[in-house]
Specification:
Blueprint (H helix, E strand, L loop, with lengths): L2 H14 L12 E7 L4 E10 L3 E9 L2 H14 L4 H15 L9 H4 L12 H27 L7
Antiparallel strand pairs: 1-2, 2-3
Helix pairs in contact: 1-2, 2-5, 3-5
The chain binds zinc ion (ZN).
Length: about 160
């Protein structure tokens, strides 16, 4: 099987069988992100803390790229300590901004490497990034929340 069609199959599989979809309680923070150019929307919640890892739940609608990307993200970073999760998220964001140059780090990105080809289409990049940006936003808000309420033990 050609690499490109293998990648397309991964995206299609996640679109048809989204991992972790559905909003769950309890949660620490909730964010709502939209991609107006395509009409994609995601509501994403995190629960837990940065050290033991944030558990993600989400509800989304929109194109196959945005939905598959959120599912891949859930598989890769749900319940992962924040620093580890952001290593993957940063690598993904970098790949999506590469305009399709270079080779994806498949060891780090796993199924998310399938979006490498999408980076060539500027209009779809925001679709692929939507869920990841929502995670980053929700997680950093949860970290700020923990600091304000002194739950990190720094007070
Ligand atoms: Zn889209």
């Amino acid at each position: 099987m050609q690499l490109q069609s293998m990648y397309q199959q991964i995206i299609l599989d996640h679109y048809k069988h989204p991992q972790g979809k559905g909003l769950r309680t309890p949660f620490v923070t909730e964010v709502h992100h939209v991609n107006p150019t395509c009409g994609d929307e995601i509501t994403l919640r995190v629960n837990g803390d940065e050290h033991s890892g944030f558990h993600i739940s989400y509800e989304n609608q929109g194109c196959s790229i945005s939905q598959a990307s959120a599912s891949v993200m859930f598989d890769l970073i749900d319940g992962t300590p924040y620093a580890e999760a952001m290593k993957v998220a940063d690598a993904f964001m970098e790949m999506m901004q590469s305009q399709g140059a270079g080779e994806p780090d498949e060891e780090l990105l796993e199924d998310a490497a399938a979006f490498h080809g999408v980076a060539k289409f500027p209009a779809r990049v925001k679709c692929a990034l939507l869920g990841w940006m929502a995670y980053k936003d929700a997680a950093s808000a949860a970290i700020a929340h923990a600091q304000v309420s002194g739950e990190d033990g720094s007070r």
